[in-house]
Amino acid sequence: MIGFLEGKLRAKSPEYVIVDVNGVGYHVQVPLSTFYDLPDLGHPVMLNIHTHVREDAIQLFGFRTIAEKESFLLLTGVNGVGPRLAMGILSGISPDDLRQAIVRQDYLRLKNVPGVGKKIADRIVLELRDKVQGKTKEKAAPPQPFAESGNSFPDAFSALVNLGYRPVEAEKALKLARQDLGENPSIEALLRGALKALV
Questions:
Q1: CATH number of the domain that 59 lies in?
Q2: N or C: which end of the chain has fewer CB within 10 A?
Q3: Tens of pLDDT along 131-151?
Q4: Domain count, the chain
Q5: Do 164 and 126 lie in a common domain?
Q6: Are 36 and 78 in contact (CB under 8 A)?
């Protein structure tokens, strides 16, 4: 089982990265919270890894912080929450905010995350409340400088739709974010602005 990867960042998108470790490229799925903090292509990157083994595939899920990985493992332990939904939840809420929402039984905050309905929100609170009591907040890794891209709108739109937002909502939020950020913002900045508008 792979638990950690360190190498050069060869490719990145809002859904996955490719990490080159001594000439071998590992395809790693990441939440948006990790994507925001990625360095420029060609730079060193370190990711905490969870290896998910299925009958037909081996998937790697990567996280910049231990808190993200722990939250992912807690979420996938909830009945009805698979790896894909867990990644979507972590893309819409930070580990510390997730913990606080569970402890406070803030169902509304959880239901605002795409893909989380009433039943899933109920299960998350019911099954995880005792497990997250008393957990301390972990400091996030310092942000890395972002690479500016040309037209990042289509990639950001695709990422939001894949997270479960309706196309109309995603487009509206991205347009609002672009008004504040200028004509050619980075995809990271565009996604941050759009997610703020969608909350």
A1: 2.40.50.140
A2: N
A3: 887 554 444 344 333 333 346
A4: 3
A5: no
A6: no
- Residues 81 and 97 placed together within one structural domain of the fold: yes
Overall size of the chain counted in residues: 199
Contacts of 51 (CB under 8 A, 6+ apart): 1, 2, 3, 58, 59, 60
Domain containing 176 equals: 153-198
pTM attached to this predicted model? 0.67
Per the domain annotation, does 116 fall within a domain? yes
pLDDT at 191 over 90: no
Residue with tokens 């009805």: 80
